[in-house]
Amino acid sequence: MQARSTTPSTPSPHGKRLSIGIVGGGIGGVALAVGLSRTRDLEINLFEAAERFSEIGAGVSFGPNAVRAISLLGLEKAYRRIADASPAPYEDVWFEWRRWHDEAYLTASLAPGCGQSSVHRADFLGAIVSQLPEGIAHFGKRCRSVEQDAEGVSVSFEDGSDFCCDILIGFDGIKSSVREHVLPSVEYGAFDPRWSGTLAYRGLVPTERLRQALGKVGADEKMATVPQMYLGPDRHILTFPVKQATLVNVVAFVTDRSTPNPQLPAGAPWVEEVSQEEMLDDFPGWGSASRAILACIDRPTRWALHELPELPRYVRDRVLITGDAAHAMLPHQGAGAGQALEDAYVLTELLSDPACDRVNAVEVLAAFEGVRHARTCRAQATSHEAGNVYEYCGTGIGTNEVHLATNLKQRFDWLWNHDPQGDVALARQRLGGEMSINA
């Protein structure tokens, strides 16, 4: 960015060009902090509610767009050291798709040059954290409230401390505290997480154990290491390797479609341990390989999958919400972490530009929202739709497996082929009024 005006950038009272606070130390928030920390005239502070960095969940799958964002953020080397990939000769396979009651092959979704790129969540967060300079992260900082005026933003934490900055980025997840400031409930109504109607049983299985279990029921043992998706009415099961293929991430989904707006029982936990028997009872009539896979999970956890409704906006002047705080989505396209990483890259590029300062940062945040809102909302909607397709409830598809296979071959193209560098270029064009943007 280069300002048309010859007026010099207004420095922050902190002595830097721009003071940036980031609330939330998950994958997206840390990736943003790492990206911004490479620009010396920015002051970066990252606030995490927990006492240390940590991730919940097990495996996370990345499509080509997410891997592209990782590379653009300068994190590719750290990522490649821990990432798994589809084994030869299935390098381009994202998932093979199979029928529920006999595991018959339906089709495969291919991501040329990428395939199924996956990691253990905690490993990936650790790899990013290793790139974070000392002194940026602050722990035990749970956001309580946010206030702002024309001069800056003040965030208060539950430990009684406060922090002032020029702009604040809420990367604080689906239960975001920053979201209430951007979209006050008294004005917009509540934008609370809503249960999707889907429960997900999760577990990590030693690869050799799974291979042997599949062999015992006469199934192809390659199904232990080549990513698989088993599709059935109101249910589906996925598997893909993590931890350098020593473990297989298994997730088994069950959806309640008996009512348009299913509700969790009052007080029901989002995550709980359940018995293997309870999990198996939810998959009656499924094929021998599917049930053998589930039988390898000795102590499953069951997750009530929540999502956010589409939000009308992500920014309010100097405060922005992004990642799951803005567009939490279901995991059915493996898109959530990828969208957070795209957000982190685009923000890094825009905020690192020397022409972005505390005076025009409001316009820069608005430009970010302008180029990201439609895409992330579409990712939310299509992630929900994908779950319907997998469970034989897709609009215009249903149980027609010919239409299902055709859909699965192409439904991810729009998501995977996106280049976030285009978002940066478009945001710069949007800022062409007071600022003449040169890529």
Automatic annotation (TrEMBL):
| Residues in FAD-binding domain copies | 19-352
Mind telling me which residue stretches traverse the membrane in this protein?
A: 18-36
* GO MF term set: FAD binding; oxidoreductase activity
Keyword vocabulary terms for this entry: FAD, Flavoprotein, Membrane, Oxidoreductase, Transmembrane, Transmembrane helix
Q: Which GO terms describe its biological process?
A: secondary metabolite biosynthetic process
| Keyword Iron-sulfur annotated | no
Q: Which NCBIfam families does the UniProt entry name for this protein?
A: salicylate_mono (TIGR03219)
Q: Which PANTHER family match?
A: FAD-BINDING DOMAIN-CONTAINING PROTEIN-RELATED (PTHR46720:SF3), HYDROXYLASE, PUTATIVE (AFU_ORTHOLOGUE AFUA_3G01460)-RELATED (PTHR46720)
This one is known as FAD-binding domain-containing protein
